[in-house]
Amino acid sequence: NAGVTQTPKFQVLKTGQSMTLQCAQDMNHEYMSWYRQDPGMGLRLIHYSVGAGITDQGEVPNGYNVSRSTTEDFPLRLLSAAPSQTSVYFCASSPTSSEAFFGQGTRLTVV
Amino acid sequence: AQSVTQPDIHITVSEGASLELRCNYSYGATPYLFWYVQSPGQGLQLLLKYFSGDTLVQGIKGFEAEFKRSQSSFNLRKPSVHWSDAAEYFCAVETSYDKVIFGPGTSLSVIP
Q1: Most exposed: A34, A66, B47, B49, by fewest CB within 10 Å?
Q2: Residue B38: its pLDDT value, please?
């Protein structure tokens, strides 16, 4: 089973560029979320979705957009990358109120 | 606002010693509580979870945690630490609408 797949694993962007981080899960989970992990700050919730067509903001949504057109996919879009968005990004999926399954992460550097 | 605190940024223990990692949360109702572990360069793996019932929960790898409502705490324990337990540990709280909030993490080092 693939579980949660994130692509790419590594990315370097120039300030002002846009890009999309991909996240796909094959477990038919309704809930998906995006986190960013920064040293000393743990994981902070960016956006989450409780099902196809439904998304909501987390703790740090500014500068990021999401959409959920299918149950399987939950892409995260950076509209205009900034150095402050340099981080490791994790996508997670879960059935209702249960264990979250995490992807392996995307390490993003914005120069 | 909901929040999770882990007072210890870094803990060092000797192999074979006991371990307790602290977690406190702020939430109006009884939350769902989780402990996750992250090995270097890896994603997070669930150690254990508390939803309701017995306040002492058992997890994988010999870990347990105790929910104390009066103290808003959910501390993680292990009676004898192994070198392979060295990792980052995160406490998490699931609040309404399935939002999961993580604490800042505690880094565990194990001395052989």
Answers
A1: B49
A2: 93
